[in-house]
Design a protein that fits this description.
The protein has 169 residues and is mostly helical. Helices cover 68% and strands 0% of the residues. It is built from seven helices and no strands. It is globular. The termini are far apart.
Length: 169
């Protein structure tokens, strides 16, 4: 009987720790509202970059922050969908037929999560401080150029063709 009560007590303590304080509830809701509203188009755009139904982006835009907020250890972390991750997932799933992409995306997310948990348990997070500011600026600039060039055909309505990848999107 004690074997069952120990995990239940731990879950009860955790639920007590994550329960919002009543005196901060109104301020927390007001602070979270702009993020919740802005995550709707961001989530839909992320799904379009991956190549799946935008509704799946809506699911990601609310499920990720809820799960991350309940498991993260800092109030300074922002958990949201990102265009860089969406573009990477879209590139990884490019050869998967459109009908099978939702299932493949779920598998990809689970595999990436398992790798990140393993890296965290191995203490590999400390190596991120060796990535310089210039490298991050270059990475983000490359991602933004790739996204912008990928949307030119949709913006203009023109047929996109080319010898290399980004004009054909």
């Amino acid at each position: 009987m004690n074997v069952i009560r120990a995990p239940a007590a731990a879950v009860g303590r955790w639920l007590g720790a994550v329960r919002p304080e009543r005196r901060h509830l109104r301020a927390d809701l007001l602070a979270g509202l702009p993020g919740a509203i802005s995550s709707v188009p961001d989530g839909m755009a992320a799904a379009v970059l991956v190549g799946v139904n935008p509704v799946q982006g809506l699911y990601a835009s609310f499920a990720g922050p809820i799960a991350g907020g309940l498991t993260s250890s800092t109030r300074l972390m922002v958990i949201t969908t990102t265009s860089a991750a969406s573009l990477a997932a879209g590139s990884a799933l490019r050869s998967v037929p459109a009908a099978q992409r939702p299932e493949a995306l779920l598998l990809l997310a689970l595999m990436a999560g398992a790798v990140l948990v393993a890296a965290g348990l191995a203490g590999l997070g400390r190596y991120t401080r060796f990535v310089s500011y210039s490298v991050m600026i270059g990475f983000l600039t490359g991602i933004s150029v790739n996204i912008a060039c990928g949307q030119v055909a949709d913006l203009t309505g023109a047929e996109a063709r080319g010898a290399f990848r980004w004009p054909r999107r």
